[in-house]
Amino acid sequence: MSVAGDAARALGLFTVARLLGVLVLAAAAWATDQRPLTLLGRSWDSLWYLGIAAHGYGVSEVFGPDVVHSDLAFFPLYPALVRLVTEAGPLSGGAAGLLVSWLAAYLAACGLFALGARLYGRAVATALVLLWGLLPHSIVLSMAYTEPVLTAFAVWSLYAVLAGRWLWAGALAALAGLSRPNGFAVAAAVLAAAAWECWTVRRAGGKVTHRLWTGAALAPVGWAAYVLWVGHREGDLPGGYFEVQRLWGSRFDLGRGSLRFVRHLLLGDEQLVFPMTMVIVAAALVLFALLVADRAPLPLVVYSGVLLLVAVGGSGFFECKPRFLLPAFPLLLPLARALTRTARARPWHATVVVCALAGLSFCYGAYLVVVARTPL
């Protein structure tokens, strides 16, 4: 089969996975007298993004002297895209948000296939795309959230790094930095790869091109620009954005808050969401170790490592950590390679594994959004 045919098959599998996930959620929503499109397009953070898209920044909800939820915590690229869609056509905010997220998810899936095929071949690339669509929290890829946007820019930026296209890598990393707070992981990966390339070129007596310097300089611009803009608006240039996050209850404490919450989970009686979160984060740590042991390319290791560090080391909103890890697609490469080997040697075993993952993904996604109603 041609490259285009294999790519179409991978995207077809991704489409089926996400469509079935949405159908299971819709069935659960209808059974409980809820509207599935409302749940997908107007849940939790989606409402903040749609508010920014419609009215700009400037909304805060005060719950106490040390608990203030400001919309400045949300980065601007996704609401800007939603506003662009609403102004260009007849779609409302929620529908426009879903359209942006769904298109971004497909662009990300295309990037995953391209990157996987470049590194390990088309079979592994297809498995990588399918596994990403079957993660336990993959329902977020079908919601009006920013993770698909970040992943799309991240995967194509990292692909550009591996291809040596530094200007593209830097520009896409800058856009990734405008999409989410943890988007600076893409810039970190580009900068690490650029530093390594500079060292190897100069060691060999060569000359570093201006494209590499320019791409490296562009990479952190988006993230830094928004953080500094919020700081200027809040009257504290370097620290204003981080104060906004602190008042939301989010801060980086090297994992102390997460460890305290894990202790509470082990000793207390909580709903399924929190123990499942703990399992997913633990699995991510194991997968990162496997990624490093597999000698994956440096930018993929740095990108995944930074995302994992932010997820594990940040306190507050423990239940959101799996969502924060959705863009960490390189963690799935060891699984994709193992699944590909299993499919060649024992096709039925691979089929059972995929079906089990699909059942978990579809049922848990419906539970998260329809039943648990826990902030995602």
Automatic annotation (TrEMBL):
The chain crosses the membrane at residues 95-116, 123-144, 156-178, 212-231, 272-293, 300-318, 352-372. The keyword NAD does not apply. Keywords: Endoplasmic reticulum, Glycosyltransferase, GPI-anchor biosynthesis, Membrane, Transferase, Transmembrane, Transmembrane helix. GO terms for molecular function: glycosyltransferase activity. It is found in: Endoplasmic reticulum membrane. One of its GO terms (biological process) is GPI anchor biosynthetic process. It is a multi-pass membrane protein. Its main location: endoplasmic reticulum. One of its GO terms (cellular component) is membrane. It comes from the Bacteria. Pathway: Glycolipid biosynthesis; glycosylphosphatidylinositol-anchor biosynthesis. This is Mannosyltransferase family protein. It comes from Streptomyces doudnae.
